[in-house]
Amino acid sequence: MDTIGFERHDHAACIQQGVQAVDGFCKKAGLQFTPVRRRVLEILLQRHRALGAYEILDVLREEGLGSQPPVAYRALDFLVSHGFAHKIERLNAFIACAHPGQRHAPVFMICRTCNAVAEADLAPDKAVLDRAAKAAGFIIERTVVEAVGVCPNCQEPRIA
Question: Rounded to two decimals, what is the model's pTM?
């Protein structure tokens, strides 16, 4: 068991389930889940942390899947635009979605010490944003909520 964000889980199963979910969604939607797109998703799922495009490109280059930045950026654009990955603005990096292909309002908790990122659903609090936007006559198209703090692994041990 490895740590995903701040929770323990079966890492191998999570990679397999993530790729299967995206593959199934793409087949139903008629989207091309190319070998490079698949590999970029696998890299994000394997590392379970936010990765920069150039970190991903380094892996792709080593595996002979591309050496130019557009290769990684095109794959990341596809994954983000379809909800299979998220861009973490604070880190200028990307992370695999914990709920691929599902409509949700994620919030990202970023550890300022180790840069670990955990994704949680903001559904109950999204209503507050929706009401504020409606009152202002504004239509929200995309919301990014990032909270910075210290993860359980980086916190000093508490004496009970």
Answer: 0.81
Distances 51 to 25, 62, 135, 141 between C-alpha atoms, Å: 23, 16, 37, 25
Instruction: Report helix, strand or coil for 44.
Output: helix
**d(C-alpha 5, C-alpha 118), whole Å:** 4
Structural domains of the chain, with CATH: 2-149 (1.10.10.10)
Q: How many CB atoms lie within 10 A of CB 86?
A: 22
SS3 160: coil
Largest Cα span, the chain: 55
Closest CA to 86 of 74, 98, 71: 98
- Rounded Cα distance between 23 and 28, Å, is 9
Query: pLDDT tens, 31-54?
Result: 999 999 999 999 999 987 899 999
